[in-house]
C-alpha cells in the first residue's frame, strides 16, 4: 500500500520531503508532481525502479527515460553539451522541456536509448519537485505518469493513490499540476528536432 503525502504546492514541508527522499534512497518508486503532469520517479541506479516503471507504463527498451535535475550544473554531469546547445537550454530552464542529448558515462547503461546512447534531461519549475531534488542531492530517474491506453495523465494525487496503490510506494499530492507533458527537444543529431509539442513553448527552438 502506497504512503500518501499531502504537500503544500509552494512551501513544501521540509520534514515530509525529507521522509520521501529517504524512501527513494531505500528503493521506493514514487508518484510526484512537476510543472507538467505527475511523474513516476526512483533513484538513478535502481534496476527495480526502472523495471517497475516499464511495467506500469508498458514501455519498450526504446523509451527515453528522463533524468530530472535540480539545476544546470547537475544536468551537465550527465549529458554532453556544446556551447550553442548550452545557451539554448540555459535560456529555457527551469521549465516544461525535456532535452535529449548524448549521455556521459555517469548515466547507467539501462537508461540509455539502445542505439543512440542518449538520455532525456530536464529541470522542472515546480517548488515540490525542486525541494525533493534538493533533498536527494541527485537527479530523479523519471517518466511521465501516463498509463497504457490512456490519452491523458492523471492529475489528482488521491486518484493516483487509488489506482496505483499496490504498484508504487508513495504518492506526493500537491494539487493539480496539469495534463500536458513536456515539450521534447532532441539535440542529439547535430541539429534541433522538436519531438513532441507540449507545455513548454516550442517556438524558441524553431
Automatic annotation (TrEMBL):
E.C. number(s) listed in UniProt: 2.7.7.87
Enzyme class: transferase
Keywords: Nucleotidyltransferase, Transferase
Tree of life domain: Bacteria
Protein's name according to its UniProt entry: L-threonylcarbamoyladenylate synthase
